[in-house]
Amino acid sequence: MFLILRTARSAWRCSNGIYLKSFNYPKFRPAKSQHRALSVFAEFKLPNNISSDVEKHSISPDKKHLAISWKADNSQTNEYYSLWLRHQCNCEKCLQISSNQNIINPDDLDPPIFLEELSIKDECVYITWKYEDGRIHKGFISLHWLYHMRRKIPAKKSDVKFYLPEFEFEEVLSSDEGLYNYLSLMNQHGVVKVINAPAEKGMAQIAERISFRLRSFYGFEFDVLVVDDPINIAYSDVRLKHHTDLPYCYHQAGLQHLHCIKNDPCVKGGVLTLNNIYTIADNFRKEYPEYFLTLTRVPVIFHHLTFTLQTYMEVRSTIFSLDHNGDISYVRWSPAPQGPVIEMKDASTLDAFFKAYNQFYRYVENYPPKTTITYRPGDIVSFHNFRMIHARSKIELNGGTRHLRGCYTPIDEFLSKLRYLSIKLGKPTSAPLTLF
Length: 436
Known about the structure:
- 24% of the residues lie in helices and 31% in strands.
- The chain contains 10 helices and 28 strands.
- It has a 6-stranded mixed beta sheet. A 4-stranded antiparallel beta sheet has the order 15-26-18-24.
């Protein structure tokens, strides 16, 4: 999303017509038409008359805010601060067109800055800024960029009803529309299922439609089979408690893909259960605020030592992390590779931690699941690894074979592809990462 909209942001020069960035060949070239508002979006199905969606606009009496009411948002008014607008100026003194990166001098962002004059034309907002010392700067900003950055009315969590989306393998592989639907529903629900995937390279083809496969210390992919002396608890027949993968990595894999290669009829169990850890943590916070607070304060070690792979991974982190607003920004939950609490001596700290930890464990394990899945050969279940905790029931092979193949893809590449396709296909999403 940012690439083309920053391109939109930087696509106009006031006197030299339009410059268009091609995704196939990354050079700017002068467009034949001198009208700089329309043809930049020719390859992508963005509206080329976004100015018609502006119901009204005005400068505040203190000249520090631009207010725009957008028809698409039921005339909801968004305010843009003068300093924020100055930082987003698209003129050639502030933005390098070839790289779409800022060249504005930070010294030029010293408040107060006032909006002296403003007009909308050619799909741009033309602004004259005035500094306290009398300096003037004239520039412009793409309306598409302001529209993209507006504060949207958030949907209520209850408005989105969960279900398990299902796609044919060829549907995802054969068209951008199919891939967009797959990615969009993955972002919305956290999990999707592909059916009728070929055993040979089917999972790799799905993963690489999104981006590239991440290489972990297991390799680009891994086989989940019940074996003697497993290097991972998943390679045994025991029940797996709810967890996310790779909690001992600072950058956990974003998406996990599990492809069922074989699951003989005689095999019992191995049922996959998925749930949203952020929803669970948010409700736990409401019901047990003191326990929740403890799990934001006491750090523990997540680690994985494998002599076979000559690997020792370790992360020191709290179970819950909060952002600047106090909202849950990250949950690191995986009982099997969780090591000791870093504090070894203080009784009150350790007692408080394990009371909170055990309560959260019971809360997670007893929380109603979002979905359960029994694998069939040809199924590929893909899900947000650090959003959707997953569990597995005990496996009884009964002389048969259960074989899953897995891999990971990065969350940034997933979101990038979703943003790109939403623009190319004219779909209504800017693809923020959905957690709840």
